[in-house]
Amino acid sequence: KILLQYKVLRLHHKMNTNKPFTVLVEGNIGSGKTTFLEHFRQIEDITLLTEPVEEWRNLQGWNLLDLMYKDPAKWGMTFQSYVALTMLDMHRRSTPTPIKLMERSLYSARYCFVEHMHRSGILHPAQFAVLDEWFKFIHNQIQLDVDLIVYLKTTPSVVYERIKKRARSEEQCVPLSYIEELHKLHEDWLVTRQHAECPAPVLVLDADLDLSQITEEYKKSEHQILRKAV
Ligand code: DCP
C-alpha cells in the first residue's frame, strides 16, 4: 500500500510541481532525529538531508563544535553563523524526489540554540543582534518552504542519559540544565507557541521510547507524511 502511495506521489510530483513536500525533523539533542531519518532510508523517492554535524566538526580542519563547547562566549557567534549557512544550504537544496526530510532547520537554530545563547548571556547583545538580523533577512527574502514539522518530544533526563551513553567527545560537559533549557525552548516554539513563529503544522511523536518500540511510533508519521504530501 505504501509503495502504491509513493508511486502516486512521484507521478503527482512530476506532473504538478518540482517543489518537494518538505518535512523538518526537530527535537532535543539526543532525541533520535538521525534514527528517525534512517527509518525512511529504505523508502525510495525520499531525499534525506541529515544534519551537517561533520561539517561543523571539520571546517577547513577546524572543529567548530568543539571550540564552541570549550569556550561558548568566544566561539558561540562563529559557530551559530556557520550552522545557519549549512542550514540555509539544506533548505535551498533542490531534490529529485517528491519528499524531502531535513534534520533540523534554520528555525531551531534561531529559536532554540541562538535564543538560549542570547538569554543566558553567552552571546553579547550586539552579536545576537547580527545573528537575528541575518535570520530575519533570510526569513523575509528567501522562500524556505516547510510543509510539516515532526517533533520528537522527549523528557530531558532520558536524552541526558542517551547523550552520556553515546559519548560524543564534544558533548562530555553538557549539563542536564542545558538539556532542560533546550527542551523548554522546543516546547515554547512547537507546542505552546510562545515567542516564536512556527512555519508549518507540527506532528508530535513520543521519542522517549527505546529502540525496540520506536519503530511503531515512527510508523505513525509515515501515514501523515504520505497523506499530506499527496
Ligand atoms: N547544536 C548547536 N546549535 C545548533 C544545532 C546543534 O549547538 N544550532 C549542537 C548540539 C549538539 C550538536 O550540535 O551538541 C548536534 O545536535 P543535534 O541535536 O542537532 O543532533 P543530534 O546528533 O544530537 O541528534 P539526534 O541524537 O536526535 O539524532
What are the key terms here?
single chain; 5-stranded parallel β-sheet; binds 2'-deoxycytidine-5'-triphosphate; alpha/beta; 230 residues; globular; 57% helix
Report what the structure shows.
- The chain has 230 residues and is α/β, with parallel strands linked by helices.
- It is 57% helix and 12% strand.
- It has 10 helices and 5 strands, in the order αβαβαααβααβααβα.
- The chain has helices at residues 2-16, 33-39, 53-57, 64-70, 72-92, 106-119, 125-141, 156-166, 176-190, 211-229; strands spanning 21-27, 46-49, 99-103, 148-153, 202-206.
- It has a 5-stranded parallel beta sheet with strand order 2-3-1-4-5.
- The longest helix has 21 residues, at 72-92.
- The chain is globular.
- The relative contact order is 0.18.
- The model has no long low-confidence stretch (mean pLDDT 90).
- 2'-deoxycytidine-5'-triphosphate (DCP) binds at residues 27, 29-34, 51, 53, 65, 83, 104, 109, 113, 171.
- 2'-deoxycytidine-5'-triphosphate (DCP) is lined by residues 27, 29-34, 51, 53, 65, 83, 104, 109, 113, 171.
Give the arrangement of secondary structure elements.
Layout: H1 2-16, E1 21-27, H2 33-39, E2 46-49, H3 53-57, H4 64-70, H5 72-92, E3 99-103, H6 106-119, H7 125-141, E4 148-153, H8 156-166, H9 176-190, E5 202-206, H10 211-229
Parallel strand pairs: 1-3, 1-4, 2-3, 4-5
The chain binds 2'-deoxycytidine-5'-triphosphate.
